[in-house]
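[Automated response] Your request has been received and processed.

Submitted sequence:
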Amino acid sequence: MKCPKCGAEIPFYDLKPNCRHCGVNILYYTQDYELERDAKMTELDNASTRMVIARIKAVFVGSFLAILRMILLVGAICAMMIPFASITFTLPFYEEKLSLGLIGVIQSFSNGLLMVLLNFFKSTLFSKAMLATLIVFAFFALIAVVDVAMLVIYLLSFLSPEKMTKSLRNGSIVACVLSAGAQIAAIVCKTGIVPSSEYASFALGFGGIACFALHLILVIINVKMLKKGVEPVYREFDPKRKELKKKIKKGEVNLDDLPLPIFESEEEHEARMKEFQQAMEEEAAAELEAKSQAEARAREEEANAK
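Generated structure:
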């Protein structure tokens, strides 16, 4: 075993707490060394955590535009519940209605209607209505995929606010095109593909218009956020602390060579000195109180002795 301070060899049978060469207390010297290293790493780790929190705040609630974007993104997903179109299949003693909205599609899937409708392609009476249904449903499914992808990107946008905002803008543009295409397809199906008959009827919905409007506003919001900038406001020296932490992990910088605290702004210095002064005052008050109690006990013992 070697002394942690002077490096001299200490025999295994030497059980003294102090080094025979330099006199340092081996146990407390090691504890102080480890505590100092822990304090340095804590400073660097807290900087990384604060930077993540700053990015989360900037992306989700950092401004009015960020809050409005969150509301409209949820609203765009909820707008999928509005029917894009509805198709009714009618026969003697039989009628089925399919609503091409999120709620209608889920209900049709749960009660098995979607599987039954696949057989309608072979029907002479329902083949054109099923073709129109498939066209509008294809647009609906693509919009749903884009909305889910945008939601995932939004939830992870704190990792890279600028890049994710660009992705959200592009996703909204794609959703606008698909929503407009869905509404146009519904109109074409209503006027040209599905003729009015007693066996099949095609009714227009405004789900496509609602999705188009909400995503268009999202495009405008994301463009304004990109112009304004989405970069979060970090505490002073936190980016430097994060960069230094990477260098320590790579072995480019030795943690033992760094001072404590590693970086300190004027505000942090004032806060630390204030805490230190408060701790010293509390310690002095505790010592004074202990001294007063000891004197009181001494006087009481002296009085009892007399």
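Summary generated for your ticket: The CA atoms of residues 73 and 291 lie 66 Å apart. The first strand starts at residue 85 and ends at 91.
If you did not submit this request, please reply to this message.
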